[in-house]
Design goal:
four-stranded antiparallel beta sheet; alpha+beta; 2 domains
Length: 162
């Protein structure tokens, strides 16, 4: 039978582990750690506070869990500027509808590629990762069926060629 945990054992337990995470979109890595129960409680108080909101919670979570680099409010504000949204619209298409309908609202990012000149060798293309945040179909009376969609980009958009 295993030993019963006592207070002295708790004091000697290791801290929450740290891990290095690669961010391939930026070609960098960061060191993160899990959050302790104490930090979970503190973050819970933030989200339930009368003068705080989800943004305050996210900032506190980043500060608590990102070990290296140590993030300041200013650095987090700069990170929040490193995003983009892409809006799409056009004529409804059953293939696109099947794809968009299956992934709208998912939290996992999906790869995208945009080729404004087509996919011929040497033509420009833009690539990145994004979350499909909205997808809607419009069907006005007497008009073609259309769609609109919004993507929230995660990380950098890279420019390359085919």
């Amino acid at each position: 039978m295993a030993k019963i945990l006592n207070l002295d054992d708790i004091k000697s337990l290791p801290d929450v582990p740290t891990k290095t995470i690669d961010i391939p979109q930026w070609n960098v890595s960061i060191k993160v750690k899990g959050i302790s129960k104490k930090m979970q409680i503190e973050l819970g108080r933030l989200i339930n506070g009368e003068t705080t909101d989800a943004f305050d919670y996210q900032k506190a979570l980043l500060k608590a869990s990102v070990v290296e680099p140590e993030l300041s409010d200013e650095a987090i504000d700069e990170l929040y500027e490193k995003d983009a949204t892409i809006s799409l619209s056009g004529l409804w298409d059953s293939t696109a509808d099947a794809i968009f309908g299956a992934v709208v609202g998912q939290s996992a990012t999906l790869s995208f590629e945009y080729s404004p000149e087509g996919t011929t060798g040497g033509n420009v293309k833009y690539e990145g990762e994004a979350i499909l945040t909205s997808y809607a179909i419009s069907s006005p009376v007497g008009d073609a069926v259309g769609y609109s969609a919004d993507l929230q980009v995660s990380g950098a958009i890279t420019r390359g060629t085919h």
